[in-house]
Q: What sequence folds into this?
């Protein structure tokens, strides 16, 4: 979405005016999200920060826009100095850079009623701050339900045919407090045991990495015979779980349900791509009205453009600013939230007959091992480590063993 020079000048002046007014009233008011109409360009800064009352839930992502092959994309900015600041105690919590994301210690969490802000310093010295937010009260999840449905989503096959995908819809119940306005953001994580931990394309797994094979000329026919278009897939050395996340922004306001028991509120779905059981952990965040408005704008824009992965990333201004350059657009938001968790173990063995149709659309990885006699470097390898990432873990989800029989 592009806009003309005169509109940009007007918007910049309005943005400066808003910032000055906010400064004069000591940041006691919230900034509503803005969907700016400006010409998308390189080097725009995107900051996504989240801090919560549960451990392992806080993070900061710092990215910048870049033009690649005629399309605008965002790439991580590494080497930043990122910190959370407790305004009640003037305490600074430094974050560590891990795989392109900035994280606090695993035991870090906040408390309801505390006021926090974010500070980010880029490698080039540019400084970005957030307007402080106070963590709301915690609203507990009463229960989580998974209900099977013949269609929870759909995909377009390579032949252009739309295929319905069955699965489980996820619902939550909770009691909304009567004495306050509440705004909710729901997310969930789905754990499923995996049998594959590494795939090497045109190569094999050796010494912790995929080794591309280089055959001498007299053996190239063997490479063509054994390895043409082949991916070697390796099992897991230890029990391992894949972690998937719901990709839909689910927000809820208690404007019409204040003080009521909210039952069977749908927050997403888990497609049926295997008959393995899954373990879902629901995260219910109580957020500020300003954060709710931001996520509502984000949801509206993403749904109107079909995907957040569109060539032009969603451009949203939240509560972040550059104190040294108030005319700079700082995209993204720092959200302070209070979190309640609840989990559910769901068996799917009785749905085995339905998996085939879904799997043909999604695809399921299976172990494709090295075989004795293939011209491969020794030693033959069949297993790989379960690497700890945001999408995979060897740490058994808390509560899994209470239900699982494996």
A:
């Amino acid at each position: 979405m592009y806009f003309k020079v005169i509109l940009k000048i007007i918007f910049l002046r309005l943005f400066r005016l808003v910032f000055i007014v906010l400064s004069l009233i000591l940041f006691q008011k919230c900034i509503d999200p803005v969907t700016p109409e400006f010409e998308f360009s390189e080097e725009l800064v995107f900051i996504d920060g989240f801090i919560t009352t549960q451990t392992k839930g806080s993070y900061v992502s710092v990215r910048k826009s870049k033009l690649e092959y005629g399309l605008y994309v965002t790439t991580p900015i590494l080497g930043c100095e990122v910190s959370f600041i407790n305004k009640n105690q003037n305490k600074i919590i430094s974050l560590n850079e891990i795989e392109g994301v900035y994280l606090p210690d695993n035991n870090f969490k906040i408390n309801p009623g505390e006021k926090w802000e974010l500070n980010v310093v880029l490698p080039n010295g540019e400084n970005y701050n957030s307007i402080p937010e106070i963590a709301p009260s915690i609203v507990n999840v009463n229960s989580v339900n998974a209900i099977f449905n013949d269609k929870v989503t759909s995909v377009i096959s390579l032949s252009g045919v739309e295929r319905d995908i069955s699965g489980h819809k996820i619902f939550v119940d909770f009691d909304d407090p009567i004495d306050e306005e509440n705004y909710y953001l729901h997310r969930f994580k789905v754990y499923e045991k995996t049998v594959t931990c590494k795939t090497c394309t045109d190569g094999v797994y050796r010494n912790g990495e995929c080794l591309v094979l280089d055959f001498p000329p007299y053996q190239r026919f063997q490479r063509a015979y054994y390895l043409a278009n082949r991916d070697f897939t390796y099992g897991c050395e230890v029990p391992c779980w894949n972690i998937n996340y719901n990709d839909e922004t689910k927000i809820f306001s208690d404007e019409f349900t204040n003080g009521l028991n909210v039952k069977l509120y749908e927050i997403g779905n888990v497609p049926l791509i295997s008959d393995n059981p899954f373990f879902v952990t629901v995260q219910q965040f109580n957020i500020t009205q300003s954060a709710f408005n931001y996520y509502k704008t984000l949801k509206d824009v993403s749904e109107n453009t079909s995907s957040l992965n569109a060539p032009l990333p969603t451009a949203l201004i939240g509560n972040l600013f550059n104190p040294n350059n108030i005319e700079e657009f700082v995209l993204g938001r720092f959200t302070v939230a209070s979190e309640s968790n609840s989990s559910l173990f769901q068996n799917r063995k009785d749905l085995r007959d339905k998996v085939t149709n879904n799997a043909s659309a999604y695809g399921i990885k299976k172990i494709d091992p090295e075989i004795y006699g293939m011209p491969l470097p020794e030693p033959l390898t069949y297993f790989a480590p379960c690497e700890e990432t945001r999408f995979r873990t060897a740490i058994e989800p808390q509560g899994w063993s209470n239900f699982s029989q494996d």
Summary: Confidence is low (pLDDT under 50) at residues 1-31, 306-315. The chain has three domains: 5-138+286-340, 141-184+251-271, 198-236+367-402. The CA atoms of residues 179 and 259 lie 7 Å apart. Helices lie at 5-24, 220-227, 289-304, 352-362.
